[in-house]
Amino acid sequence: MEPNYSENPETMLAANVSQRPTRRKPATMSIDEIARTLKIGRLKAYRLLEAGVIPGVRLGSRTRWLVSRCAFTKWLESAGSKVA
Fold this sequence. Notes:
It is a single chain. The protein is mainly alpha-helical. The mean pLDDT is about 80. The chain contains 4 helices and 3 strands. It is about 50% helix and about 10% strand. The protein starts with 8 loop residues before the first helix and ends with a helix. The protein has a domain at about 30-84. The protein has a 3-stranded antiparallel sheet with strand order 1-3-2. Helix 2 crosses helix 3.
């Protein structure tokens, strides 16, 4: 049975809220996000990327990196299992 929105505006508001799409995180991570997650500085994050420790792809000759959120999460989980 469909709710009758004309009788109760709160029902209509609740229905609209429940139909909103959930926000997804971007597929890539920024250096700031990586540094915050690992509790390290940005420079250290760049150095770990350059050394190949953190999985990422360098774009051009500048310091622009693409880091897949999925690959980073898998790397982080595997690094944690090696320590434990």
